[in-house]
Design a protein that fits this description.
There is one protein chain. The radius of gyration is 24 Å and the shape is flat. It is of the alpha/beta class and about 180 residues long. It has three helices and five strands; from the N terminus they run H-E-H-E-E-E-E-H.
Length: about 180
């Protein structure tokens, strides 16, 4: 009886050692993106336009439009949709107009030079996708994006001087618009 228990234990250890410890890691497979929920019939190209009508004008509209176009191209390439900005757009099938309404930075907790604090960048925007014939395909009004970041700067106004913070804000706005527009109804 003891021999059978020892043999069973030895087999279990062998299986675990060979199967769980010494095999190479399995390849990582990314799941396919979810299907688009927006009816894109007749739309193969989108021109992205951006405006910043906030009082502070921290986000550059050209950079924002390029960031959103990049997010669209990155997340919808399987659907055959291409996004462009400026002159390269030419006669697009649709226009995505984004307007930044407000940009703020709020400090979270005490910060000092020795102990950098975290701050929240809040961006409120409006976006509308309109086909060439004037039909509004999708729109979202006064959506707010909050990005929590850690800064070395002590003052919230200094956060706008951080190029990484501005880049993070543009990426966050672009990703939020694309996900809300194409994947959430």
């Amino acid at each position: 009886m003891l021999e059978k228990k020892l043999l069973t234990l030895a087999c279990a250890v062998g299986i675990l050692a060979c199967g769980a410890c010494f095999l190479p890691p399995l390849p990582e497979h990314r799941p396919p993106p979810p299907p688009l929920r927006l009816n894109l019939e007749g739309i193969q190209s989108v021109r992205v336009e951006a405006m910043n009508i906030s009082e502070t004008h921290h986000l550059d509209p050209v950079d924002l439009a390029q960031g959103v176009a990049h997010a669209i191209n990155e997340k919808t390439w399987k659907a055959g949709l291409n996004a462009y900005t400026g002159k390269e757009a030419g006669d697009a099938d649709a226009v995505l107009r984004i307007t930044i309404l407000n940009e703020t930075v709020d400090a979270r907790g005490p910060a000092s030079q020795a102990n950098p604090g975290s701050m929240t960048i809040s961006i409120k925007d409006t976006a509308t996708l309109t086909r060439q014939d004037g039909v509004v395909v999708w729109s979202e009004t006064e959506s707010e994006n909050s990005i929590l970041r850690h800064f070395r700067q002590v003052s919230p106004t200094d956060a706008w001087n951080d190029s990484a913070a501005i880049s993070s804000a543009i990426i966050a706005v672009g990703n939020r618009i694309v996900i809300r527009m194409f994947y959430i109804r």
